[in-house]
Amino acid sequence: MKGPFKAFRHVHEFAATGAGSVMTDRIEFTAPFGPLGWLAERVILRRYLERLIAGRGVLLGTPCPDPGTGLHSRL
Asked: Which SUPFAM superfamilies does the record cross-reference, listed alphabetically (predicted)?
């Protein structure tokens, strides 16, 4: 599979709780372009991915408006 990253791994981990379950995202990535990519990881990409995953977590934590389809209108 090809993409903009030199390496990218995204894993979902699930753990049971008394109220249901908790999903944890684990993301590992390496930007291309050597030292320039390393700098981009620290300055831009890490914060971008943290905000992206946090926003998705808010969406996933809200009740589904149409349980018949399992779709959120904001997807």
From this structure: Bet v1-like
Cut 0.85: pTM above it: no
**Helix extents (H) in 1-75:** 34-40, 46-60
| Residue 32 CA: distances (Å) to CA of 5, 7, 9, 44 | 6, 8, 14, 14
Task: Looking at 1-41, list the stretches that DSSP marks H as alpha helix, in order from N- to C-terminal side.
Answer: 34-40
Closest CA to 24 of 57, 48, 50: 57
Name the DSSP class of 19.
T
| C-alpha span between 64 and 71 (Å, rounded) | 7
- Per residue in 1-16, pLDDT (tens digit) is 788 899 999 998 989 9
Cβ atoms of 34 and 21 closer than 8 Å: no
